[in-house]
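Holo prediction. Input below; ligand is GMT.
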Amino acid sequence: MKIGIVCYPTYGGSGVVATELGKALAMKGHHVHFIAYKQPARLNQFMSNVYFHEVSFSNYPLFQFPPYETALASKLVDVVKFQKLDLLHVHYAIPHASAAFLAKQILREDGIEIPVVTTLHGTDITLVGKDVTFKPVVTFSITNSDGVTAVSDSLKKDTYQQFGIDNCITVIPNFIDLNIFQRDNKDHFKQAIAPEGEKIIMHISNFRKVKRIDDVVEVFHKIHQSMPAKLLLVGDGPERKKAEQMCRELEIYQDVRFLGKQDAVGELLAVADLFLMPSESESFGLAALEAMACEVPVISSNAGGLPEININGETGYLSEVGDVEDMAKNAINILQNEDLLSSFRENALAQANRFRIEEILPQYEEMYQRTIDQVHSNTKMTRADCE
Ligand code: GMT
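Structure of the complex:
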């Protein structure tokens, strides 16, 4: 198949999922064309059947806001036509689904019927999408996608609740490559971070408000009061400054390392004892799955899709959003008991195994084929067909 993948090229979850999906599809022999405003961060090796098309646009002085969506739609028309794509798969509704709709209409004028699959990732629905500024366009572009997927049952439910749509939404969860994310022996690194054998707690995110970084710091503070521990914070974003300030005020700064944006997160996770994800809302929580693949138990909130991956009392613990007391109590419970910690580690790996890429990739291939068949037979599944 010749597949066009539209995504954000950044380190964030949706861009990572889109890029890893495209690479895996290419490994299976598909021809994959990435279309984005910059080379995706994880697209860092040459593959003969992977192509990158950059969306560039003019900075004409009249444009106070450069019309990215228009430039993207034009690029899609160009790539679909000249590369003879079979399908477009757009990740994140805004503005990718609406740009794909526009491209679809333009191509139709030329007698080309391009099937469009939209994958909803989370904030495009739960935070940004329901904003009145975007809602009519998001509703319209989901309705007019030929196929729609969501990364968790929870996100599917939220989408039906917040948008008056009648599409069939297929849940295809995020996935993990267990060859990349695994608990390697990284004793030298562990020794450098925690020379006295301190427990290593880790958090990875884009440091946006929704991630509740202050809860991460508070939970760590409580753990730190009961045992020697270090906190590794990976990623960067608007809440970082506040977190640094909190660490100074709580006098734990010497045991907290801000590592910034990192590519090799698997290697970092390989030394962690516990992963914290206290998010306000989280459609899936890919970073938590990455932690589990590296045998790291997860202390998380019970928001969104997190209970679908973090099994309370088995792979970690779930608490109400904001209940830092409960999160700290659960964290200390696991960290103080080596037998418990190792059984949680085993369970975490077993759970990650259920989301391995080999299981999930065929679900996307099947979705693509079904969507192409429906477009060509002029049929469409509705909400009632897939509930
Ligand atoms: O977590 C973020 O804020 C980034 C965001 C994104 O769109 O890149 O992540 C969302 O998509 C990921 C991949 O499907 C999910 O694993 C994350 O849970 C989801 N984030 C939220 O729902 C907050």
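The longest helix spans residues 357-376. That is the main takeaway for now.
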